[in-house]
Design goal:
Order of helices and strands: HHHHEEEEE
Number of strands: 5
Low-confidence stretches: none
Strand content: 25-35%
Structural class: alpha+beta
Largest sheet: 5 strands, antiparallel
Shape: elongated
Number of domains: 2
Mean pLDDT: 84
Distance between the termini: 74 Å
Length: 125
């Protein structure tokens, strides 16, 4: 082995050992984390975000169900309200492309539970 090859081999082994050490220091919960938000985070996800007024679970629903998510433009979010039965309600007025590609303004009221599941939607159709 030449001196250059020994140097490359030493660096390679050093990097592999370093990565192994870093990997062992990573908490197990991040390695096995689920897509389910933590309890304290979930409460924040159920209410309006301070920077744009949106509600995380409702916006995720819209991303998955609109005809063309890229055409979505929020116009207004109401304040999320917790109902007496423990469910939540929020209104979103938005512009998006319909099935024919035309831009239309919709005004939907979303009802969702404390797990973020959309239970009902009332809106212009």
């Amino acid at each position: 082995m030449t001196a250059k090859n020994k140097k490359v081999a030493t660096w390679t082994i050093g990097i592999i050992i370093g990565l192994a050490i870093i990997g062992s220091l990573t908490p197990e919960e991040t390695a096995t984390s689920s897509t389910e938000p933590k309890k304290e985070t979930k409460d924040v996800l159920l209410t309006n975000r301070s920077w744009d007024g949106s509600v995380y679970f409702v916006k995720e629903y819209l991303k998955a169900n609109l005809n063309d998510w890229d055409s979505y433009e929020s116009i207004e979010w109401s304040t999320a309200v917790k109902n007496d039965d423990g469910t939540y309600m929020v209104r979103n007025k938005f512009r998006a492309a319909n099935a024919l590609g035309a831009q239309v303004i919709q005004n939907w009221i979303f009802y969702y539970n404390d797990q973020g599941q959309i239970l009902n939607i009332i809106g212009d159709e």
